[in-house]
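Database export, one record per block. Field names are fixed; values are copied verbatim from the stored entry.
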Amino acid sequence: MENFTINQYRNWFEYEKDAHVKTIASLLAVPEEKRKTKEFRKAVDLFAHIVSARALWLYRLGFLKDLPENLFPENIKIENIQPMADEMYSAWEDYLSKLDEKKLNRVFEYKSTEDLWYTNRVEEILTQLFGHSWYHRGQIAQLVRMIGETPAETDYVYWKRKPIAAKD
């Protein structure tokens, strides 16, 4: 039987992909006249940051050969978000499919964006990434709400809950 923790990280990633689909849909639903607002631009750039951060960690983990161009992309076109996300999902699906307990507990070294060196276990980074995406999706939801539009509903419990027959 596979390690519960490995399956939990894979489960979180599947949830994250679904939450991102909903988040992108909420951004695409913003009317054209509101897409020029600073809040909309920031929301799109935050989503691009989520994608770039995930790519950066795959690079640091030694799974991707190329360092992402920019951790904080700006002025990203909304039409480019889904292809960026799809490329990142594909790489992460490949990585997670090869993950085992030994790799999950591996300690690795990496250089931070501040040019300092650190070590972490892979499991710690996977946990960080789940929280990182959640945090920024919350910011995106707030920005979408600020321009009078409806943000995506991406709470984990809504994704996991299973309906049952009504009980009287």
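Remark 1: The helical segments are 4-28, 38-60, 78-97, 101-104, 122-146, 156-160.
Remark 2: The chain has a mean pLDDT of 94.
End of record.
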